[in-house]
Amino acid sequence: MHQAVFYSKGNDDTVICELCPHQCTVKHGSYGTCGARINQNGKLMADSYGKITALHSDPIEKKPLYHFSPGSKILSVGSYGCNLKCTFCQNYHISQPDYHTRLPYKHYDPQEIVDMAIDVENNTGIAFTYNEPIISFEFVRDTARLAKEKGLKNVMVSNGFINPEPLDQLLEVIDAFNVDLKAFDDDFYKNITRSSLQPVLKTLQTIAAGNTHLEITYLVIPGLNDDRKQFREMIKWIAGELGKYIPLHISRYFPQHNLKTDPTPTETIFEFYETAKKHLAYVFPGNIHTYGGISDTHCPGCSITAIERGGYSAGIKNLTPDGKCSKCNFQIIKHLKSWN
Ligand code: SF4
After folding, report:
1. Ligand 1 atom with minimal separation from the 83 CA
2. What are the extents of the domains in the chain?
């Protein structure tokens, strides 16, 4: 088992994990909140290192990432555990301990994952996804470093609940993030996810201020995070703090795990889409059948269709090989794999 990084000694035989804002004090023989990091004889160990529960080649649109390597595949890997406890978790069988402790996994080392990624046709790189990759920090870092050496790109699909120093280290090797912003309301984060909002906002600001590509997903849950005023405030915050060109995916919720609320009405998704479009250039409905080209990317400069989408497929229509609009030269995409 690999020793974890980002921890300090506590009292007696406890250790304090400093990877995420929970700052768990972990007793000998116990796991932190995430279920992936264990105190063994006064050392914090990365128990989930290389334990892979899910491994698939997916369209990158499925992450979802719409403005990073559109139309390419990405080898997607997941382990187990999560530092959040969302009652509506869509992947609870691998994220929550009541389920994942009975889950089969296969062991891979970073080199094996990279070798597999190289072999996949039209593959952009590796996505760390399915469960929360932050809590597999050491495995993600080691695999992403090797992948980078081979010219692959690295992607993380994350809740963004991480401390600043480990985030800075990840930003050295991760090329694109999709971060779930689950609500613009600290009470929601506290009561529904057992975490807090501010660290996630800080993560978003840090990523947006650097060179790493960022997209955001917002899952709309009826009665929990569909307050119109709060949603408008969130959109204004994204536009003001992160920039109006951050792609936003507004996703339809379906009942999962411990939450039995009815699915989001489709009208709500389209209403939120219209609200967000007033302030953001790239807004996409998710988990829903769309029409009239609203899942396409339109150039903010001249409105021409730059990328056409249907389901998880994407066709590049009017982009130059360096990602600019072929009509008005507006820079739309920074990384295009499908042209290489
Ligand atoms: S990564 Fe896990 S063990 Fe570490 S502070 Fe977060 S929840 Fe606790």
Report:
1. 7
2. 2-46, 51-316
